Amino acid sequence: MTKFERFAKEKQYLLGVSPRTIEWYQQSLRWLNTESPSDEEQLKDTVLRMRTAGLKPSSCNSHIRAINSYLHWNSNAGSKCSPTCPHPKISRLKEPNRALPTFSAQDIQRFLSWKPKTFTQRRLQCLLLTLADTGARIGEALALRWSDVDWDSLLLTLHGKPSTTVISTNPRAGTVCA
Predict the structure, then answer these.
(1) What percent of the chain has pLDDT over 70?
(2) Alpha-carbon span 71 to 73, nearest angstrom
(3) Which stretch of DSSP H or E encloses residue 90?
(4) Which of 30, 55, 146, 167 is most buried, taking the most CB atoms under 10 A from its CB?
(5) Which secondary-structure segment (H or E) carries 155?
(6) Which pTM was predicted?
(7) How far, in Å, CA of 77 to CA of 85, rounded?
């Protein structure tokens, strides 16, 4: 059994990672030319081959995370990996910051001036204005329940990615996150 196979088996049977994660490890470890890279040049060559093959920095970083996990395991360090670990590591690539497109004030004015005619259109307008007013994610807004709305204080309780967030919908208070 190769070291790569042993690594995957330990991850699968001892740590209980999913089959999809095992597949990710296997795909990522194919980029390494050797099971025990001995110098930094071999690791740099790995990244150069990924970039030459057309992988974007974010994809390379995904593979680099898996490879670094293997390199830590291969060093028999035992403890959780830290910046002071002596095993070889591949530094992550810088990824470009992509600004998400946002609506302009003119776009919001168009949403406000739209006169919906049907129930479905009114519901859509309500959703759009809630998203624009609160900055909530679409999934957070669609998951709202009546119990998440405090009509007296004009607050919405969102259950989203980072944690539960309370957002004021009071136009005089502005949008407040707590």
Answers:
(1) 89
(2) 5
(3) none
(4) 167
(5) strand 155-159
(6) 0.58
(7) 8
For residue 105, the model assigns a pLDDT of 86
Query: For the segment 7-32, what is each residue's pLDDT rounded down to a tens digit?
Result: 999 899 988 999 999 999 999 999 98
**Angle formed at CA 139 by CA 19 and CA 102, multiple of 5 degrees:** 115
Residues paired with residue 158 on neighbouring β-strands, in sequence order: 165
CA atoms within 13 A on the CB side of 44: 3
Neighbours of 64 (CB within 10 A): 22
Three-class secondary structure of residue 159 per DSSP: strand
**What's the token pair of residue 52?**
């030459």
Which of the four pLDDT bands, split at 50, 70 and 90, describes residue 163? Answer: low
Report which of 3, 21, 1 is spatially closest to residue 72, judged by C-alpha positions. Answer: 3
Q: Are 124 and 116 in contact (CB under 8 A)?
A: yes
Please classify residue 17 by burial: count the beta carbons closer than 10 Å to its beta carbon, then call 0-12 exposed, 13-18 middle and 19+ buried. middle
> Tokens representing 133?
């007013």
- Report the alpha-carbon distance of residue 157 to residue 172 in Å, rounded: 18
